Amino acid sequence: MLALTRKPGESIIIDDEIEITVVEIRGDKVKIAIEAPQKVAIVRKEILDEVRAENKEAAGMATGMGEEKVKDLKAIMRNLNLGKKT
Asked: Can the keyword Membrane be found in this entry's annotation (predicted)?
C-alpha cells in the first residue's frame, strides 16, 4: 500500500488514466474527486463488502446449506478430484 499526503487541490494519477483530487478537508473527512474512463468501476469499499456478504449468504440459502456445510462440500469435492486419474 502506498500512503501519500495531499492538500486540497492536489492530485495523484494512477496508470495515466485515473486522477484522484483532494477537493476538501473538513475535520476528519476528506472529499475526493475521481476522474476515470467509463470502463473503470468506482465503488465505495463498504458497499462492495456488503454486497459480497449478501451474495455469499444468498448462495448458501439457495443451496439450502449454511456456510460451514458449503466449505465441507468443497473440501470433499477437492479430495475426490485428487483421486482422479487423467
From this structure: no
Cα gap 34→20, rounded to integer Å: 5
Q: How far apart are CA 47 and CA 11, in angstroms?
A: 24
Domain count, the chain: 2
H helices present in the chain, as ranges: 45-63, 67-82
What digits encode the pLDDT tens for the residues 4-60?
999 999 999 999 999 999 999 999 999 999 999 999 989 899 988 998 888 887 776
Residue 33 has which C-alpha cell? 474527486
Chain centroid, CA 76 distance in Å: 28
What's the domain range around 49? 45-82
